[in-house]
Amino acid sequence: MRDHTYHLLQEHIQKHISVTPDELSFFLMLLKRVTYHKNQVLLREGENCLNFAFILSGCIKSYLIDKKGEEHILTIAPEGWWVADVKSFITNEAGNLFLEAIEPTQAALLSRANQALLLEKTPRFERYFRVLTERAFAMSQQRILDAMSLTASERFDKFRLQYPSLTNRLTHRQIASYIGVTPSFFSRMLKQRK
Amino acid sequence: MRDHTYHLLQEHIQKHISVTPDELSFFLMLLKRVTYHKNQVLLREGENCLNFAFILSGCIKSYLIDKKGEEHILTIAPEGWWVADVKSFITNEAGNLFLEAIEPTQAALLSRANQALLLEKTPRFERYFRVLTERAFAMSQQRILDAMSLTASERFDKFRLQYPSLTNRLTHRQIASYIGVTPSFFSRMLKQRK
DNA sequence: CCTTGCCAATGACATAGGTCAATCCGGATG
DNA sequence: CATCCGGATTGACCTATGTCATTGGCAAGG
């Protein structure tokens, strides 16, 4: 428990709430450390999402496959982000998302049961998850507005501003999917931007 | 404090957490009751959103006006829903949304300061807001996926399923804006559906 | 070092949905 | 009542983005 493997997560927590060392170790004790290889699928459509994952290194995408078989990326989570099929996680029902590592990835998993335990024993963490979710919600709402009011090219501009480091780590297909266009159109769009 | 004006809100709270009568009254005491007439604008772009509003009766919309002057509805909040410019509320910065009553509306306002007070004195409410936000977040994510993977007509089908009562209360323009199409296209779409 | 396979680019063509203007209508207001 | 105004509909036309198929490149694995 004294190693620094969870450095990134500790930082993340302390940025949001103040906790005692005991509370912190209790949290860390509830986690399960996992490794995924590139292209490993962590969760499939129709499965119940049992864990929230904090990414320590690497990158995970969450996506939907529509009835035409097309993939639509909902979330891209590099190190320092939490990711899950949130709807499934909170409702305890089967979800419709896939989770997949797009790089070799290390993560810390917090199971639904352990989260419940954590929140019961250490209600201070309620605030951590509330604030986290509020931020995620605000960003999600902004994305809805962007989808309705901006062109694909403008959405790409915002993407690059918001996630400059991701722009190089992801393939064009992935960025295209995230901003909501096809790879062919994305490619044409890039050319047109000179 | 003993009147039943906040019946709907009390119910809403008790559906999510268990609170003592004292905690409940403390919450209710922090609220400010307001009335809005139809078309009244509660918040404009560029303003700091100081309150969360719980709708007791009537209906509020939140929307963005894009650079072409077009309105895009983000949220429709009838009685029983909380509404705010969440990003502005949580960051304490100027927002980009408008809030406007689309019916004569009664609401209970919880200011940022009072929410902070509430959460400090009665941490039990952290859970209430966490759960609320989680649900809202999950719905918001679903809407992003719908925008990416469904046609306008399919989005309308989902809208009617999800909000059957709203379908009649709103104008076609409003529904069109919410599902992300223009009024003319919405009208044509309806005709085509036979 | 040669497959194999996915990604990127691109041409030809298709379409969902947007734009703009005209008309009609019903409810609100003086 | 008469007026006014915004919503709904619709026609003609437009465009952003999708579809599909082809080609070339580059990276991983046997």
What is the β-strand count of chain A? 8
CATH architecture of the domain at 4-121 in chain A, please? Sandwich
The main sheet of chain A comes to: 4 strands, antiparallel
CATH first level of the domain at 4-121 in chain A? Mainly Beta
Strand content of chain A: 15-25%
Summarize the structure.
Chains A, B: This is Crp/Fnr family transcriptional regulator. Chain A has a domain at 4-121: Jelly Rolls (Sandwich), CATH 2.60.120.10. Chain A contains nine helices and eight strands.
Description:
Chains A, B: It comes from Niabella pedocola. Chains A, B: It holds the Pfam family cNMP_binding. Chains A, B: Residues 34-114 form the Cyclic nucleotide-binding domain. Chains A, B: This is Crp/Fnr family transcriptional regulator. The mean pLDDT of chain A is 95. Chain A has a domain at 4-121: Jelly Rolls, CATH 2.60.120.10. Chain A has 194 residues and is α+β, with helices and mostly antiparallel strands. The longest helix of chain A is centred in the last third of the chain and has 26 residues, at 124-149. The first copy, chain A, contains 9 helices and 8 strands. In chain A, the strands form 2 sheets. Chain A has a 4-stranded antiparallel beta sheet with strand order 1-8-3-6. Chain A has a 4-stranded antiparallel beta sheet with strand order 2-7-4-5. Chain A is globular. Chains A and B meet through strand 5, helix 3 and helix 5 of A and strand 5, helix 3 and helix 5 of B. Chain A binds a DNA duplex (30 and 30 nucleotides) through helix 9.
